[in-house]
Amino acid sequence: MYKNKAETGLNNISGPNIKKYRQALAGKVSQRKLADMLQVEGLDLDKNAVQKIESGQRFITDIELKVFAKVLQVSYEDLLNEP
Description:
Elements (H helix, E strand, L loop, with lengths): L14 H10 L6 H10 L6 H8 L7 H11 L3 H5 L3
Helix pairs in contact: 2-3
């Protein structure tokens, strides 16, 4: 049977990692600032979408994951490693 949720019940496994790497950026980047950085790269997400992704309430697409990795300056694997 196909499972579309993480073992934790969240809708993604990368959200906590995105939060961790966002907070590790110089100046502790806010969710709003991260959304602005993503928009510069062509990904139209707002602060609320970033919050839902980080908390695991929202699924994340591979296209979105690619841009998150670029903006956060980490690899896809870093974002996909389960905590």
